[in-house]
C-alpha cells in the first residue's frame, strides 16, 4: 500500500490531490486509515468520507474505505508538514504504513527547454527541473504518432533538483520490458526506470529521424497520465557521415594513459612522427556514433574498427594489417578507447604498437611508416551502402637525442644555457649532467619543449675559463647516455642601456571647439634599462599648466600627468614643453569657433541645390581640394612647430 505522490501542496488545485493505492490478493475488504498526526475530522475531509456514514469513524480516529484499488486523497488546507498513516485490514490483522509531505509551495516539474535536438546514433540528453516533487513520470514518444512510446519514472537526487535523463538513441528501440534498461540512465544519484512500454510491436531498427513528443506528469496509472506538468519535443536528426580527414595521430611521454583523466593530465602533441617507446594516441573527430561508445563498448559487433597498415611491404607480399576487428589474414591491434566525448565530438584511442615491429625499443633502427584507419562498416545499423572510413599517416622512428654544436663552448656565467634537440615526445623529462673531473659535477632535470628541443641552465660563475668538462643527457626510456665535450669561455656581460626618457604631449578632444573642456596630458617613458631622472614644465598660453621637479622612471617604466583647460574660448594657443630647462617640444592648439548648429566651421543651414548646368559636388578642381580638406580635418589641431 502506498500514496502515489510523496509530496503534495495544501494549495487549491490539482497539486493537492493524490491517491492511496491499496494492493491485496483479496478484492473486497474494509480498509481502516488512521494517523497520529491528523484528527478524525481531518481524515474525513482528506479521503472524502461522508460524515456520519458507516465509513466515518472520526470519533475513534480513523476512516474506512472499501476494497483494493486507488482511493482519492486531497490535502488542500492541511497544514504543511510530514504525515504518517497506518493502513489496516478491517477484518484481519494485516497492516502497513505510508507517508506524505505537504508543502505550502507549489509543485512543478519542467523541461529545461522546449526542444531537445540530437543526432541519431548518439546519446540524447533531456534535462528535467524538479521543484518540491519527489518523482515524476516521463513519457517519450506517442504510439499513435511515431509507433514508439515508453514511460519512465524519474527520481531526482535529494541534493540536486536538476536531472539529466540520457537516452541512447542507438538502443532505445530495443526496450521491451519494465525495470532498469541501459538505454535510459540518469546523472549523479538520480534514477530512471522503465515503468511501461506502450508500443506493441518490437522495433528491429534504431529510432528514425523525426520529432518525439515528451510529456511529464506527477502520476501514471493504467496507461494514463495525471497531474501533467510540462511537454516538449525530442528531435532526432539524421546521423552525420564520417569525414575522410578526421583521424589524427598524437604522441605523449612514456607512461600509461588509460583514462580520460590521464589523457587530460598528460602532455599530448599532435604529430605524425612517433619515437619508439613513447605513447601513441589516435583521435577521431566525429559528431555521431556515441551511443555505441560507452564503457562496455563492443566495437566489432557494431561495425566499428581501428586498423594500422604498413606502407612498405616485402616484395610479392600484401601489406600487413593490424586491426581491432581482425579478419583471417590480419593481426590483432591492441587499442583501448579511453575517451568518447560527445560534447567535444572526438574519440581517443591509446595504441599499443609493440607488435608493429620486431625486437624491443633499443633494437629499433631507422623508421617505418604506416596508415591509421578508422572505419564504420555496413555492419553498423546506420551505414547501409558503403563503408565509411578516415585515414592518417604516421611514422615510427628510432629514438634520437643530440646536443647542439653550440655546447662546445659555454660561458662561465651564473645562467649558462646548454641546449639540444630530440625526436622524443614533448613533455618527456630527461636528466642532464655537467662533469669536470676533480672540479665539479652537477645535474639538471629538463623537459622536452613543444618544438622538441631541450635546454639546461647551469651556474658556472665560480669556474675559470678554459675548464674542460663533459655534458651528458640520459634518455629515460632506453637509459642511453649522449655526451658532448665542452670548454668554459669568458662570459660577456651585457651592459645595460642608458636611461632614455621619451616625452609626449596629447590633448583630448584632438579638435576642440569653443566651450570644450580640453584635457592636456604630458607623458614620459624610459626606453632604456637604467633609471632616469628629469624635471619638466608644460607652458600653455604663457602660463605653467603642469610641472614636475623630480620625475624618476626605472627602465621600461612610464608615467603621465594631466590637467584641464576648462571652457576654452575659440583661438590659437601656443604651448611649450621644457625638460630640464630645455625646450623638448612646442606647438599651437587651435580651438575652433562653434556655429549656431553646433558644427565646427560648418556651412549655414545645410547644402544648397546646384544651379542648372552645374554638377553636384565640387566643380573644377573640387576632387583635389576635397581631398586636401579631408586631410586637413583629420590632422590634429595640435601642430608641432619644430
Automatic annotation (TrEMBL):
- Which parts pass through the membrane? 620-638
Q: Entry's InterPro entries?
A: DUF7827, Ig-like_fold, PGF_CTERM
Which stretches make up the DUF7827 domain?
105-216
Q: Where is this region: Disordered?
A: 1-24, 584-621
Gene3D superfamilies listed in its UniProt record: Immunoglobulins (2.60.40.10)
Q: Name one GO cellular component term.
A: S-layer
- Which Pfam families does the record match to this protein? DUF7827, PGF-CTERM
Return the Acidic residues bias intervals.
593-617
Write the record's keywords in alphabetical order, separated by commas: Membrane, Signal, Transmembrane, Transmembrane helix
- UniProt KW Membrane keyword: yes
Q: Which residues form the PGF-CTERM archaeal protein-sorting signal domain?
A: 618-640
Could you tell me what this protein is called?
Answer: PGF-CTERM sorting domain-containing protein
Highest classification ranks of the organism: Archaea, Methanobacteriati, Methanobacteriota, Stenosarchaea group, Halobacteria
Amino acid at each position: 500500500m502506498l500514496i502515489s505522490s510523496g509530496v503534495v501542496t495544501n494549495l487549491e488545485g490539482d497539486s493537492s490531490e493524490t491517491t492511496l493505492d491499496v494492493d491485496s490478493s483479496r478484492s473486497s475488504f474494509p480498509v481502516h486509515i488512521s494517523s497520529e498526526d491528523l484528527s478524525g475530522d481531518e481524515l474525513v475531509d482528506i479521503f472524502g468520507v461522508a460524515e456520519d456514514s458507516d465509513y466515518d469513524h472520526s470519533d475513534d480516529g480513523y476512516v474506512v474505505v472499501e476494497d483494493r484499488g486507488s482511493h482519492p486523497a486531497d490535502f488542500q488546507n492541511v497544514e504543511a508538514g510530514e504525515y504518517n498513516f497506518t493502513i489496516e485490514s478491517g477484518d484481519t490483522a494485516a497492516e502497513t504504513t505510508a507517508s506524505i509531505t505537504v508543502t505550502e509551495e507549489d509543485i512543478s516539474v519542467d523541461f529545461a527547454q522546449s526542444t531537445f535536438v540530437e543526432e541519431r546514433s548518439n546519446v540524447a540528453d533531456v534535462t528535467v527541473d524538479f521543484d518540491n516533487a519527489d518523482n515524476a513520470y516521463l513519457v517519450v514518444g506517442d504510439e499513435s504518432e511515431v509507433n514508439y512510446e515508453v514511460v519512465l519514472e524519474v527520481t531526482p537526487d535529494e541534493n540536486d533538483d536538476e536531472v539529466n535523463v540520457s537516452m541512447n538513441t542507438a538502443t532505445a528501440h530495443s526496450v521491451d520490458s519494465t525495470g532498469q534498461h541501459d538505454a535510459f540512465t540518469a546523472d549523479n544519484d538520480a534514477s530512471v526506470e522503465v515503468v511501461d512500454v506502450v508500443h506493441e510491436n518490437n522495433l528491429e531498427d534504431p529510432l528514425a529521424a523525426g520529432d518525439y513528443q515528451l510529456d511529464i506528469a506527477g502520476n501514471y496509472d493504467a496507461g494514463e497520465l495525471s497531474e501533467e506538468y510540462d511537454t516538449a519535443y525530442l528531435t532526432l536528426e539524421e546521423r552525420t557521415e564520417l569525414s575522410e580527414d578526421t583521424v589524427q595521430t598524437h604522441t605523449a611521454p612514456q607512461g600509461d594513459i588509460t583514462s580520460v583523466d590521464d589523457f587530460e593530465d598528460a602532455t599530448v602533441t599532435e604529430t605524425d612522427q612517433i619515437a619508439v617507446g613513447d605513447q601513441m594516441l589516435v583521435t577521431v573527430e566525429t559528431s555521431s556514433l556515441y551511443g555505441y561508445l560507452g564503457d562496455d563498448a563492443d566495437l566489432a559487433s557494431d561495425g566499428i574498427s581501428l586498423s594500422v597498415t604498413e606502407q612498405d611491404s616485402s616484395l610479392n607480399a600484401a601489406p600487413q594489417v593490424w586491426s581491432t576487428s581482425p579478419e583471417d589474414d590480419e593481426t590483432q591491434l591492441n587499442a583501448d578507447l579511453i575517451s568518447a566525448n560527445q560534447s567535444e565530438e572526438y574519440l581517443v584511442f591509446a595504441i599499443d604498437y609493440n607488435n608493429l615491429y620486431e625486437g624491443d625499443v633499443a633494437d629499433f633502427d631507422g623508421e617505418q611508416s604506416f596508415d591509421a584507419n578508422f572505419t564504420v562498416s555496413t555492419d553498423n545499423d546506420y551505414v547501409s551502402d558503403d563503408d565509411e572510413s578516415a585515414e592518417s599517416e604516421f611514422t615510427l622512428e628510432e629514438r634520437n637525442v643530440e646536443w647542439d654544436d653550440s655546447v662546445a663552448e659555454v660561458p662561465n656565467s651564473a645562467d649558462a644555457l646548454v641546449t639540444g634537440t630530440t625526436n622524443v615526445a614533448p613533455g618527456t623529462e630527461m636528466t642532464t649532467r655537467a662533469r669536470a673531473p676533480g672540479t665539479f659535477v652537477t645535474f639538471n632535470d629538463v623537459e622536452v619543449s613543444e618544438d622538441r628541443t631541450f635546454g639546461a641552465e647551469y651556474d658556472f660563475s665560480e669556474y675559470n675559463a678554459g675548464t674542460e668538462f663533459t655534458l651528458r643527457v640520459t634518455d629515460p626510456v632506453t637509459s642511453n647516455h649522449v655526451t658532448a665535450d665542452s670548454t668554459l669561455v669568458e662570459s660577456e656581460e651585457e651592459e645595460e642601456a642608458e636611461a632614455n626618457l621619451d616625452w609626449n604631449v596629447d590633448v583630448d578632444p584632438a579638435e576642440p571647439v569653443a566651450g570644450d573642456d580640453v584635457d592636456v596630458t604630458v607623458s614620459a617613458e624610459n626606453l632604456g634599462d637604467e633609471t632616469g631622472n628629469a624635471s619638466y614644465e608644460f607652458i600653455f598660453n604663457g602660463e605653467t599648466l603642469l610641472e614636475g621637479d623630480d620625475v624618476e622612471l626605472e627602465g621600461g617604466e612610464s608615467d603621465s600627468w594631466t590637467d584641464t583647460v576648462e571652457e576654452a574660448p575659440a583661438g590659437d594657443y601656443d604651448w611649450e614643453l621644457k625638460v630640464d630647462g630645455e625646450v623638448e617640444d612646442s606647438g599651437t592648439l587651435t580651438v575652433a569657433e562653434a556655429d549656431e548648429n553646433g558644427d565646427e566651421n560648418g556651412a549655414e543651414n545645410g547644402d544648397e541645390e546646384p544651379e542648372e548646368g552645374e554638377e553636384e559636388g565640387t566643380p573644377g578642381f573640387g576632387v583635389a581640394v576635397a581631398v586636401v580638406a579631408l586631410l586637413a580635418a583629420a590632422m590634429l589641431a595640435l601642430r608641432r612647430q619644430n
